[in-house]
Design goal:
By secondary structure, the chain is an alpha+beta fold. Strands 19-14-13-22-23-34-33-30 form an 8-stranded mixed beta sheet, sandwiched between helices.
Length: 658
């Protein structure tokens, strides 16, 4: 790689590897570095040096810093200022139980301890009118308490502040002398539902100091090029914005994968796909029916997050997922992962059996292809390590154990796909399985067969598609406002509300350098039957009420067209269109491919002679009959007996059952 040419780079930090995709002179280059979980920027800077750091014009980053800090409870010491009487809203929540029949269940402690949840004397009503003015003297008493508590960040969430921001703005002014990071609910999530709004604002405050430090350090070490961060909604934002609103980066990495997968799928003529991203630590699945699905009802570790997020379901099933016995003596895989350090046994340091080790035992993961042969796989370490574990001796052979590990992790991933499809009224048989991630190609055909899906698509650069997705993402800004009015006859009110949101969206994107013809807008409404507790989002079209009835019928199996429909929120999304890598069709090849060799591989519990192919030599029109293994730098694809693999014009591998 020549460091002299200017390039854009996408960097996706995963639990095991940090992936780099570079677009230089119209060509796409990929490589990986082992992640450094304690200091994620170290792996990034190592990769940037390898790419030619000084020539980077733009770096787009998919980060796991916010997610990991939240899951590991390593955020800032945070205080909550809320309307007096609502101090315990984080504890009370919705009074729902995640494990209904578990009498020993324990709830995680809230991010803000009781002593730092403080009530502000004020009251704003649902319509924005002020019933009780803000008590400035009492507020100053609370601020003095904050000074003595060594607080690093403050969340402010006052009742009905989405209808009138006056009191929250006054609290912000009063907090300025403390020089702390302050998160206002009226800016983070100006929507009703106090619990979800409070939870989202508290999470943002909890993560803001850590994320700010991380992005500042990374920006200082990068060259003059700009740093952008992937959001959970599938768009990018400035690093400074991400530092102020880290809650929007919770699904930063997985979102890049869905953006990349759907963009490539559309370019190749597939509009209905289920994306399947199996990496080193977890598997992320998402259903795309003509577009990417977005939800406003996300959760992380039981804590609701109300901002726009891609509708992605994650399970702890990746190449590094650890196999062990549960309390009943049954084999379980995940959610714990060996990560990058120590990693799987075959990486040279690990001591616990993982999915990657199982695939090495079965002869499916070949050292000659793994990271281009630059990282050796120590197969000889696996059996001695298993002997040390003890519990593995109940299996008749290591191959039988490895097959059991693969079966268990496949079942976990199958259930995840059923959750986002069958349980939401979609038939997976009507979709193609779009497979990527370093480990996905080894498991995709089994999942497709179990779900009755006829086609599996493996794109180019599958092990780095999430990083490529970062370069395919537009700049995105979401705006919303709670309304709570009857949907019938609401046109004039809706028009006024959208006009206010439009002016903000246009101003912010124009300030980032976008011209009017580069800005695209998507409007939608949150609707529900009057009396319901939750709503569905539909596009703003002339017959939006009928669209809602149909959406309700798909999700819940019925529609009630004689019942009043309530408009809950108006939403608009502004997209700033960015330059993207181009995908072109290739010339059809006349001669068929020749396998590099044939070697034994365990498939369906039997040892079969398998053709080995290097994906680099495959071209448009090539057809490979299973059993076969197709290896490349970032991933490996298994074509089992009874399947054939066709290389399409865009060099995707298309696997179909014979």
């Amino acid at each position: 790689m020549s460091p002299k040419s200017i390039f854009r780079v996408g960097v996706d930090t995963g639990g095991t590897f940090t992936d780099f995709v570079i677009v230089r002179n119209g060509e796409i280059e990929i490589f990986k570095e082992l992640s450094t979980p304690q200091e994620p920027e170290e792996a990034i800077m190592k990769g940037m040096a390898r790419a030619g750091n000084s020539a980077a014009s733009e770096v787009i980053h998919g980060s796991t810093v916010a997610t990991n800090a939240l899951l590991e409870r390593k955020g800032a010491r945070t205080a909550l200022l809320t309307t007096e009487g609502f101090e315990d809203i984080l504890v009370i929540g919705r009074q729902t139980r995640r494990e209904l029949y578990n009498i020993f269940v324990t709830r995680p402690d809230p991010l803000v301890p009781a002593g730092l949840r403080m009530g502000v004397r004020e009251r704003t009503l649902y319509d924005g009118s002020i019933a009780t003015p803000l008590d400035q003297d009492h507020l100053q008493t609370l601020i003095n308490r904050l000074r003595s508590e060594n607080v690093e960040s403050v969340a402010v969430c006052l009742l009905y502040s989405f209808a009138n921001t006056e009191h929250e703005n006054k609290v912000l002014c009063a907090l300025e002398p403390l020089r702390l990071r302050v998160s206002l609910s009226s800016r983070i999530l100006p929507e009703y539902r106090e619990y979800e709004r409070t939870s989202t604002t508290v999470i943002n405050a909890y993560l803001a100091p850590l994320m700010s430090r991380y992005l500042r350090q990374l920006t200082e070490r990068l060259p003059h090029g700009s740093l952008r961060v992937m959001q959970s909604n599938g768009g990018t934002m400035r690093a400074k914005t991400a530092a102020d609103a880290p809650v929007k980066t919770i699904l930063s990495g997985p979102a890049g994968g869905v953006v990349g997968a759907f963009h490539v799928a559309q370019a190749c003529g597939y509009s209905r796909v289920i994306t399947f991203d199996m990496g080193g630590t977890s598997t992320d699945v998402s259903l795309c029916d003509g577009d990417v699905k977005v939800t406003h009802e996300g959760q992380i570790d039981g804590m609701p997050i109300g901002i726009s997020m891609m509708d992605i379901h994650t399970v702890g099933a990746g190449g590094g997922s650890i196999a062990e016995l549960d309390a009943g003596g049954a084999l379980k895989v995940g959610p714990q992962s060996a990560g990058a350090d120590p990693g799987p046994i075959c990486y040279g340091k690990g001591h616990q059996l993982t999915v990657t080790d199982a695939n090495v035992i079965l002869g499916r993961l070949l050292p000659r292809f793994f990271l281009g042969g630059t990282m050796p796989l120590a197969k000889a370490r696996i059996e001695p390590a298993l002997d040390m574990l003890g519990w593995t001796k109940q299996w008749r052979s290591v191959e039988e154990l490895a097959q059991g590990v693969v079966d268990v992790v496949n079942n976990n991933m199958e259930q995840a796909i059923r959750l986002i499809s069958v349980e939401r009224g979609y038939d997976p048989r009507e979709f193609a399985l779009f497979c990527f991630g370093g480990a996905g190609g080894l498991h995709a055909t089994h999942l497709a067969e179990a779900l009755g899906m006829r086609r599996v698509i493996v794109p180019q650069f599958p092990g780095a598609l999430s990083a490529l997705g970062l370069l395919l993402a537009d700049v995105r800004k979401d705006y919303s406002q709670t309304v709570l009015i009857n949907a019938a006859g609401s046109d004039a009110r809706v028009k006024t509300l959208f006009a206010a949101l439009y002016s903000v969206g246009m101003a912010e994107l124009e300030a980032e350098g976008f011209k009017k013809n580069e800005i695209h807008r998507i409007d939608s409404l949150d609707l529900r039957y009057r009396g319901q507790s939750y709503e569905l989002t539909v596009p703003l079209v002339a017959d939006f009420i009928e669209r809602f009835h149909k959406a309700h019928e798909r999700r819940y199996g019925y529609a009630n067209r004689g019942r009043d429909v309530e408009l809950v929120n108006v939403r608009t999304t502004f997209l700033g269109r960015t330059a993207k890598p181009k995908f072109s069709k290739t010339v059809k090849q006349r001669r068929g491919p020749e396998p590099l060799e044939r070697q034994p591989c365990w498939i369906d519990r039997r040892r079969v002679r398998t053709d080995i192919y290097d994906r680099a030599i495959l071209g448009h029109g090539h057809v490979i009959q299973g059993p076969a293994i197709i290896g490349e730098y970032s991933s490996t694809t298994l074509v089992p007996p009874g399947f054939r693999c066709t290389v399409d014009a865009y060099l995707n591998l298309v696997l179909e059952s014979n």
